[in-house]
Design a protein that fits this description.
Layout lengths: L1 H17 L1 H8 L3 H10 L4 H12 L4 H15 L1 H5 L3 H15 L2 H10 L8 H29 L1 H22 L31 H4 L2 H32 L3 H31 L4 H22 L6 H13 L4 H11 L3 H15 L2 H15 L3 H26 L2 H14 L5
Helix pairs in contact: 1-9, 1-10, 1-12, 3-18, 4-7, 4-8, 4-17, 5-7, 5-8, 5-10, 8-17, 9-10, 9-13, 9-16, 12-13, 12-14, 12-16, 12-17, 12-18, 12-19, 13-14, 13-15, 14-15, 14-16, 14-19, 18-19
C-alpha cells in the first residue's frame, strides 16, 4: 500500500508537465508563469511536511496517511470545476500541502514494520514507487491527455487517490517497531539513537553534520526531480522536436532508472555495512556520489545533440539522484530515536524538497531571460547541474553517522549527574 502511495504521489507531480502544452495554450501561460504554477505545488509542501511530521510523532500514521490521501483527491476538484489560472494555482497549492508530508510519514510508518538492520530494501522499495509512478503514469496520462483532453488525466488521478484511501482505511495498521508510552524505543535503533526519545532535544540531530549532509544532498537531487517533472517534456518538444510519444518514452526511461538505482544501490550499501564498512563510506559517500553524478549529467545535457547520448544523459541526470533519498532516510534514522523520527524525517523531507518551490520558477525565469529560448534553456540546465554537483560534494564531505554517534555519546557523558 505504501509502494502504491508513492506511485500515486509522483503521478500527481508528473501530470502538470505532461499536460503543460495544452494547459499553457488554453490559459495563455508564458514560461515564467508556467514555472510559477509548477512551483506553487511546493508553496506549502515543506511547511506541511514539518507540521505533519510533528503530528506523526503522536498520532498513528495510519490516520495521518489516510487524511493526506483524502486531501490529494479533493485538491483536483477546483481545477476540474472551473479551469483558470487562479484555480490552477489553488489546486496545485492544496495538492502540494497534502503531498508534502507523505514521504516522511510514509517512511516513518514503513520503519515501524522492520528492525533497523532490515530497512534498506523497504526504503528502496518506497522510493522506487515514485519511479514506477512516473513509468506507469507517463504513457497512460499521455494517452488520456492526447485522446480525451488534459482534464481526463486529472480525473483519473483523483479517482485513483480516492480508491487508495478507501483501501488504506481497511488495510492500514501500525507496525510493532514503534515507541513505548514513555517515548522510549520498543527496539534499539542504533548506537547513534539515544534510548530515551522523550529526553532527546530536536537540536541534537539538527546540529549533526549527517542530518545536514543528507538534507543538502537531497536538495540537489530534488532539484533534478522538480526540473525534470516541470520542464523536461517542454524542453524535449521545443528544443529537440520530440513527438508526444517520444517524450513519454524518454520520461519512462529515466523513471525506469529511478527504479533500478535505489533497488540495487540501497541493498548493496546495506550489505557493505553488515560486513563492517562504516555507514559514512557505505551510505554517506554513496548518496553524495549519486547526486554528484546526476548534476554532472544535467550540466552536459544541453550541449548534446546525438539522440542516444541525450537519452543516456536524461536517464542519469533525472534518475540517479533519486537513489540518494532512501540512503538519507537510513542515515537520518541512525542518529534519531524512534520517538523523534517522524519530526526528524519530516524536517529532512521539508528541506530536501525546497527545490520543488524554487527550481521550476527559477528555470522559467532563466529560460525567458536568455537571448533566445535555446540560450535560456542552456543557462537554466547548466545552473541546475552545477548547483546539484555542489550539493553532492557537500554530502560526500559531511555525512558521517559514526562521528555524530561519538559526538552524542561524548556530550551525554559530559552532562552533570542529577542531584
Amino acid at each position: 500500500m505504501i509502494f502504491a502511495l508513492a506511485m500515486i504521489n509522483f503521478g500527481d507531480k508528473a501530470v502538470l508537465g505532461l499536460a503543460a502544452d495544452p494547459i499553457s495554450e488554453e490559459l495563455d501561460l508564458s514560461h515564467s508563469l508556467y514555472g510559477l504554477v509548477a512551483s506553487s505545488f511546493f508553496l506549502l509542501f515543506s511547511a506541511s511536511a514539518v507540521v505533519v511530521g510533528f503530528v506523526a510523532n503522536r498520532v498513528a500514521t495510519r490516520w495521518v496517511l489516510l487524511a493526506l490521501a483524502i486531501v490529494w483527491s479533493l485538491a483536483q476538484l477546483p481545477l476540474l470545476a472551473a479551469a483558470s489560472v487562479g484555480t490552477l494555482f489553488l489546486s496545485r497549492i492544496i495538492l502540494g500541502a497534502g503531498e508534502g508530508p507523505t514521504a516522511g510519514v510514509a517512511v516513518h510508518a514503513l520503519y515501524k514494520w522492520f528492525p533497523a538492520k532490515r530497512r534498506a530494501l523497504p526504503s528502496a522499495l518506497y522510493v522506487i514507487g515514485s519511479g514506477m509512478g512516473v513509468f506507469v503514469a507517463a504513457p497512460v496520462l499521455t494517452y488520456l491527455i492526447d485522446d480525451h483532453g488534459w482534464r481526463s488525466a486529472f480525473w483519473a488521478l483523483a479517482g485513483v487517490g480516492a480508491v487508495w484511501a478507501l483501501l488504506w482505511l481497511l488495510i492500514g495498521r501500525e507496525g510493532p517497531y514503534g515507541a513505548n508510552a514513555d517515548g522510549t524505543d520498543t527496539a534499539p535503533e542504533s548506537l547513534a539513537a539515544p534510548e530515551a526519545a522523550s529526553s532527546t532535544p530536536y537540536r541534537a540531530f539538527l546540529r549533526s553534520r549527517t542530518w545536514w549532509g543528507g538534507a543538502i544532498g537531497g536538495f540537489g537531487a530534488y532539484w533534478t526531480v522538480a526540473l525534470g517533472s516541470a520542464f523536461l517534456p517542454i524542453y524535449l518538444r521545443s528544443q529537440h522536436d520530440y513527438t508526444t510519444g517520444e517524450v513519454a518514452r524518454a520520461i519512462s526511461l529515466y523513471a525506469l532508472v529511478t527504479v533500478i538505482v535505489p533497488l540495487t544501490v540501497s541493498p548493496w550499501a546495506a550489505r557493505l555495512h553488515r560486513r563492517g564498512v562504516s555507514s559514512r563510506r557505505s551510505r554517506g559517500i554513496t548518496q553524495g556520489a549519486l547526486v554528484l553524478t546526476a548534476g554532472a549529467a544535467l550540466t552536459l545535457l544541453p550541449f548534446t545533440e546525438a539522440p542516444a547520448a541525450q537519452l543516456a544523459l536524461i536517464a542519469v541526470a533525472f534518475g540517479f539522484g533519486v537513489g540518494a533519498f532512501p540512503l538519507s532516510y537510513e542515515t537520518t534514522s541512525e542518529i534519531t530515536p524512534v520517538g523523534r523520527r517522524g519530526a526528524s524525517l519530516g524536517l529532512l523531507v521539508a528541506f530536501q524538497t525546497l527545490p520543488g518551490l524554487l527550481a521550476p520558477a527559477v528555470t522559467g525565469v532563466l529560460v525567458d531571460a536568455g537571448a533566445d529560448e535555446s540560450a535560456g534553456y542552456v543557462l537554466a540546465l547548466v545552473t541546475g547541474g552545477l548547483l546539484t554537483v555542489v550539493c553532492g560534494l557537500v554530502a560526500v564531505a559531511t555525512i558521517d553517522p559514526e562521528y555524530d554517534a561519538r559526538k552524542a555519546t561524548a556530550t551525554a557523558d559530559a552532562r552533570p549527574l542529577p542531584a
